[in-house]
Amino acid sequence: MIEEIWKDIKGYEGLYQVSNLGRVKSLDRICSTGRSVKVEY
What we know:
InterPro entries: His-Me_finger_sf (IPR044925), NUMOD4 (IPR010902). Pfam families: NUMOD4. Residues 4-36 form the NUMOD4 domain. This is NUMOD4 domain-containing protein. This protein is an all-beta fold. It is 0% helix and 34% strand. The chain contains no helices and five strands. It has a three-stranded antiparallel beta sheet with strand order 1-2-3, with no helix packed on it. A two-stranded antiparallel ribbon has the order 4-5. The chain is elongated, with a radius of gyration of 12 Å.
């Protein structure tokens, strides 16, 4: 089984990451109310 390794996307550090398997994910963010939110596209 291949281990999935995630790295930041240049220019989108802290927002999006891409894995060595080609998957892309949006990272959790802290909104102005102080709550953590997950943005789905």
